[in-house]
């Protein structure tokens, strides 16, 4: 590539044009495949109606030719995709400096006023003693100025990521994962001695009172201790490791960590200026122009990331909603420093430079980060009531914010532990306490899955039947999600064993401290691990339609939440209703159906162009 910036830009535009041309060719070939499939279907109908063996033979010959044509078109489509992949791999931005000042384009989001960042009301084991401003911008600029401006070895891929309309979804975690992947590749070239890697959905196995150190050590543990481990392990969205040791923790939120403009927020002031009392009539959240409810959510986000940094024994972290980025740094005295917000839309762009600097800072910092010598307190927030702008479904009463308090009140009564709440239909949902021993947890190799948001899914036996069990500590977001699943399953009772697993039981365990749900153990594999056939596609769409007919929106349609079962009709089961919404909104149901078809399309299934219809959103407001 030529040295001049103008020639670099011209070559980048030329490569982008090649990629767009290949995308057009891929779409045309896909349309040809669809037309051929329609012809094949019409021929099959003709063959079934044809009374003459001779005519059927001729028609079958035409069908064979069409199937051959379809196979050739599929090969052509695969070749075009390979060609596009090779071009993307060869595409070169230029110098190290030019890579660092790329503009990061956040995922497209609909504009919604008053959206707060997702946060948990779970009590934290660790809170900072004090929170201060981290004036790190000069250090980032020095790091940027020292970048190589001559060698041209770094690819441009971050900005292009959000321009690929065929992506199945564009929410924050996928976007951050892509950026981290590019940054890891970049820093491995810059500082190869660091042995840099990153992990997503990182389970932090921490020692808790009454628990043990981790899932792997549960062979000799009691059932109660095992439940504590399965329900109590927090999950960091991303953890970066340096020299095989944890170095940085990333916590990703939905929205609400910055204003609509480019003005940065000084997030430390949300914590330090918040010392409200009911008689003052003012709140320090005014410094960011936000409500006390919004401020409390941000404080909980800060405390969550700080606790994860302590538990992972790291000194650096990042809090982001993909538009606004905050760098965190802590010491062993309990002091937490937070940078001013770095916005993705700012000019000049600084997101990649800031992240790369933070990795560099962690790499050269030889400090040992352990438990802080002191523990702080959660700031006092006056009138931090839930907002009317909550992005959760308003017609799903699982979101009742007083539920946790009422459950605890019911649980404190003497005798058999039982809590009750009113479901949306007016009936009471009773949570009976079941001894951990009666769940018959499998002590060796019992974890079915540990990848999803819901935590570990574990083998057990309840009422004499093999079950898949999920656990969550009472009063946490995950516990609310499990109770959402119970409500959803009760509304779908006629689908049990047909399109969804049977609900075997639910309640609390460990003396009412942990919520659990037990469903039928499914013998099958996740949809993402098998080839998608037309039979599987049809069954999955029928299953989703049946869920919608029960007045539910799944809320988290993904290949990992659909199981292909062996030797049964229908061939699929839909799982995990923790994000479900009680609604009969036809537009949202259609959007969810189109999202499922888009997943088939990206996974190599045979669906039409409807899957790419821009009228339907990828992210559903559940």
Provide tags for this entry:
single chain, 622 residues, alpha+beta, Methane Monooxygenase Hydroxylase, Chain G, domain 1, Transferase(Phosphotransferase), domain 1, 8-stranded mixed beta sheet, 5-stranded antiparallel beta sheet, 14 helices, globular, disordered C terminus, Kinase-like_dom_sf, ATP binding, protein kinase activity, Meiotic_Drive_Suppr_Kinase, coiled coil
Given helix and strand content, the structural type is: alpha+beta
Poorly predicted residue ranges: 1-8, 156-170, 206-220, 276-282, 382-417, 421-427, 607-622
Question: What value does the average pLDDT take?
Answer: 74
Mind summarizing the main beta sheet? Answer: 8 strands, mixed
- Outline: globular
Number of helices: 14
Radius of gyration: 27 Å
- What is the strand content? 15-25%
Percent helix, as a range, is: 25-40%
Q: What's the total number of strands?
A: 22
Query: What is the terminal-to-terminal distance?
Result: 47 Å
Keywords: Coiled coil
Organism: Physcomitrium patens
Coiled coil: 19-90
InterPro entries: Kinase-like_dom_sf, Meiotic_Drive_Suppr_Kinase, Prot_kinase_dom, Tyr_kinase_AS
Protein described:
The protein has 622 residues and is α+β, with helices and mostly antiparallel strands. Among the domains are: 16-90, Methane Monooxygenase Hydroxylase, Chain G, domain 1 (Up-down Bundle); 130-157 and 172-185 and 226-364, no CATH class; 447-604, Transferase(Phosphotransferase), domain 1 (Orthogonal Bundle). Helix content is 36%, strand content 17%. The chain is built from 14 helices and 22 strands. The strands form 6 sheets. Strands 2, 4, 5, 6, 7, 8, 9 and 10 form an 8-stranded mixed beta sheet that branches. A 5-stranded antiparallel beta sheet has the order 13-14-15-17-16. A hairpin with a 6-residue loop joins strand 20 (562-565) and strand 21. One of its GO terms (molecular function) is ATP binding. Residues 19-90 form a coiled coil. Residues 367-622 form the Protein kinase domain. Keywords: Coiled coil.
